[in-house]
Amino acid sequence: MNKVSHIPIELMETFDCIVKNEGDATAAAQQLGISQPSISKRLSSLRRIVAEDDNRPWLILKGKRWQLTQAGQRVHAVVSDLIKKYEQVEQFIADSGSFRSSVSIACGQTAAVGFVRSAVEQFAEELPEVQVRVSTTRGKARIVGVAGGQFDLAIVTDNEATIRDVAGMELFVEPIAVDRFVLVANPSEKSAWRKAWKSLPVRRPLTAFDIVDLPLILPERDAERRQQFDHWFADSCDEVPTIAIEVGGWQSILSYSAVGLGVGLVTEEAVRGFQESAAGARHNSLTVRALEESALQPEGVRVIARKPQGQSTPDINEYTQRLLDLLRKSAPQAKGTK
């Protein structure tokens, strides 16, 4: 068993910083304010101590970057939580007992600039004395973070079975929104596909047959939403879609679509967030078309938290409960669609 408590805090901070900088030791050293030899020495010490405990390293060097092992993935959330608590203790001492309450939530970039931001704005207005920490980590890391105590709440789109498997325990799971898929585009006057896009029906959702000849901008092949789209298209149409670009992240797809590179597959909430951003303001002629939902089901948005064993209610304090209530009100289905 990994004996995290026997590892000096500076080694845990180094491990956490390496992970958050995607394995880039140089960037981590700069963030920590130490030299390259110093971070190399810390990593060697960390590997030695972990090896003495169970001989399963948390990090391995591949090329010029450090990568998390399975053991590292399991322990990272716990390490991050210990660092957070250690920093809180330091702050408490520095403030001579004037400790400030805090609430932490993890979500994706789209939610962070969308309904989560709306909830946080109202929360800050009601409870200015409470600090809010919003972390934009990847989906699975949010689940692990909640299970390990790093985050009080997290917004995810994984189903309950996946949440349980990733967390390794039962968590509080509540569906709070439905985010529908749409297509977006901004073809230039010279685009060969401009006429096809402009002639699409506007009074009914689009089918796979409607978009078969359009240059699509889709999530990467291993993304869950891309696989969902591929299944929908294959089941609905005998032809092969025209894929122009594959890129990760709704905001990236929207940015590519906004400059006329093709027709992007995104969600309504992602569109709302983009339209409110500076990039969206520069490309306000982006048009949106709804997609058929019979097989391409809307993206289910869920909030997760820890819960006591055998109970159905979340194990959260009054401040986190208030943020949860505001998230419910600000979520896409509560606001309706445009």
UniProtKB/TrEMBL annotation:
PROSITE patterns: HTH_LYSR (PS50931). Residues 7-48 form the HTH lysR-type domain. GO terms for biological process: regulation of DNA-templated transcription. One of its GO terms (molecular function) is transcription cis-regulatory region binding. Keywords: DNA-binding, Transcription, Transcription regulation. SUPFAM superfamilies: Periplasmic binding protein-like II (SSF53850), Winged helix' DNA-binding domain (SSF46785). Signal peptide: none annotated. Belongs to the LysR transcriptional regulatory family. This is Probable transcriptional activator protein ilvY. The lineage of its organism: Bacteria, Pseudomonadati, Planctomycetota, Planctomycetia, Pirellulales. The gene is iuvY.
